[in-house]
Structures are given as C-alpha cells and as structure tokens.
Amino acid sequence: MLYVTKKVDFSAAHRLYNPNYSDEMNESIYDKCNNYNGHGHNYTLEVTVCGEPDPNTGYVIDLKKLKDLLINEIVSKVDHKHLNLDVDFLKGIIPTVENLSMIFWKILENKLPNGKLYKIRLYETDSSFVDYYGQESEIKIFE
Ligand code: NI
Fold first, then answer.
1. What are the tens digits of pLDDT across the range 81-91?
2. Tens digits of per-residue pLDDT, 69-82?
C-alpha cells in the first residue's frame, strides 16, 4: 500500500463564535478568533490517497487529476472568501480547522474511488493543523 499526497493552499477569512453563547463567553473561548469582523489565515490542505500503483501507469492516482479535484471542489470555493458568509457548504458551521477538515472529507470522498481517501491534513498556521482519517464525527450545524 502506498500513500500519495497533494498539497494546495488557500487564504480565507473567518470568525469563530457560537451563536448560542453570549458575547462574553465567545470572547473567552475564541479570543482573537472571535473578532467581530473576522480575520484571515493562510491555509494549507494536504490530501492523501492510498492504494496500489496501477501496473500500467505506475500511479496510485494521477496527481494532476487530484490537484484539479481539490481546486475545483474546494479551493475555488473558499479561496479569498469569508468562510462564515460566502461558502454554501459551510453555512451554520463554526469554521474551525476541525470542522473544515470534516466537511472537506465529505466533499472529497464522494469524488474519489471508494476507499482511496486516506487522510486530510489542514494547516491553519505553520504550527497548527488537524489530521482527519474520516472516522465518523459529528458536525454541529447552527440555524
Ligand atoms: Ni482564526
């Protein structure tokens, strides 16, 4: 089994807050990330697929095709956007890297051959990132 990864970048704004909490509570939980008008991050998304190389091509997956998929399905929809306001598939979701990773997984797993998606790693800063392997986890959606 081999693991092949494609990395793409995007920049986006977000604001972290829970609409069910008071302003004070949001401030104490999210601190600077609760800034009313949002703030930006330079994200890096790494998507790993697994499998055996095709004997004829030598590819587990064509990385150009994987890159096109990531650009078309994710980057083009979130790059230079406000994640709380501009992105249909993030409506009502607190845009933490945790939640973004789970949403991106749901989008990509339907577009890749069954069982190929192995890992999503999403960096919000150089030193902060999430690894997600697709285990069932709940995403709360706020009305
Ligand atoms: Ni932030």
1. 999 999 999 99
2. 999 999 999 999 99
Q: If you measure from the C-alpha of residue 77 to the centroid of ligand 1, how many angstroms do you get, rounded to a whole number?
A: 18
Distance CA 116, CA 121 (A): 15
Return residues with CB closer than 5 A to ligand 1 (ion).
Answer: 33
User: What tokens appear for 14 in the block?
Assistant: 């977000």
137, part of any domain: no
CA dihedral sign of residues 65, 99, 46, 116: negative
d(CA 124, ligand 1 centre) in Å:
8
The CATH number of whichever domain residue 43 belongs to comes to 3.30.479.10
The residue range of the domain holding 66 is: 2-132
- Residues marked active site are found at 33, 80, 124
Residue 138 in domain: no
In a domain, 140, yes or no: no
pLDDT tens digits, one per residue of 2-42:
999 999 999 999 999 999 999 999 999 999 999 999 999 99
* Spacing, Cα 40 to ligand 1 middle (Å): 7
Number of separate domains in the chain: 1
Question: How far, in Å, from the CA of 79 to the mean position of ligand 1?
Answer: 15
